[in-house]
Amino acid sequence: MKKNNKTKVGIVGLCGQSIFMKIDHFHKPEETVHASEIHQEVGGKGYNQAVAVKRLGGEPFFLGAVGDDISGKHCCDYLIDQKISFNIIKKVGKTALAVILCDKKGYNQVTVYPGVALEENDLSSFYQEVADFDFLLLNQEVPQTVITSIVTWTQANHKKIIFNPAPVTSFSQQIAKKAWLITPNWHEVRQMLTLHDINTIDDLIGVLPNLNFPRMIVTLGKEGALVLEDGKVTHLPALKVKAIDTTGAGDVFNAALVVAMGEKKTLLEATKFALIASGLSVTREYVLAAIPSREELLKI
After folding, report:
1. pLDDT tens profile 64-89
2. What is the pLDDT of residue 4?
3. Are 224 and 235 in contact (CB under 8 A)?
């Protein structure tokens, strides 16, 4: 951490344009559904996490890639406005695009066009920027070669990786074994670790200590989160709220978690802080505008 005691977090991820549409219900095969509202903003898992880290009191440094189009410029402009340190590599091609459908119950479905991608030779300046950071927050919206390079560098330099295995790939378990902490949701942990016979939270509580992970947090939406540490599983409740839009809640959770860990909170304390942050975020529409401030959390 810096002398100002703010948690310093290196974040690598996708950044691009997001299009939100409100619908009554999700599509059935061959069904046309009309949207009642449309909204556009910049975003991406790592991008959202960087904004949330800043808003929640940390100091992020974000690395991403954009195309040579107006969406790429919008990505840079927003980070400048938020006073977030970053290195966004401009490449020939199109910037990433995500289409998010949100139904009347507050659930969402997301389709992503990944756009231009980071490459290994884009990482050298990032390593210089985060050389004195304690934490790297990593997800799987960047190429496998980039993730492998980051993990190798992080281990050699004794940094802690908090790995959010989203979206899950065949590569997820390999990286998860090298991370200091992993933070899958219910669906991701079942898919990543092939726990297809696990159908209830109690089932998962029973199996987590036998998976040979020193620590893990499984987010459960409105059911809160499971925290595995030293072979013990603790079930923490979610903040009691009415969900309006769950998009980005996982990104807010991970950002809040790493900020709190950098402030020397225990894993349980950090998870409680993260549950409050993500809980507040789902009471608001969209992603960036829904990210709460540090001051809001301290009032809960």
Report:
1. 999 999 999 999 999 999 999 999 99
2. 57
3. yes
- Say if residues 251 and 287 touch (Cβ distance below 8 Å): yes
Look-up of token digits 């219910």: 186
Q: What is the pLDDT of residues 226-237, one digit of tens each?
A: 999 999 999 999
CA distance 300 to 291: 15
pLDDT confidence of residue 2: 42
Alpha helices in the chain (DSSP H): 45-55, 70-81, 124-129, 144-156, 172-176, 186-192, 201-207, 249-262, 267-281, 294-298
Determine, yes or no, domain membership for 2: no
**CATH, residue 290:** 3.40.1190.20
Strand order from edge to edge, sheet including 16-22: 37-43, 16-22, 96-102, 108-113
Is 228 part of any domain? yes
Q: Give the angle 250-254-258 at the CA atoms, nearest 5°.
A: 170
Q: Which domain holds residue 261?
A: 8-26+34-298
- Asked whether residue 169 is domain-assigned, the answer is yes
User: Taking the CB of residue 95, how many other CB atoms lie within 10 A of it?
Assistant: 29
pLDDT in tens, 192-228: 999 989 999 999 999 999 999 999 999 999 999 999 9
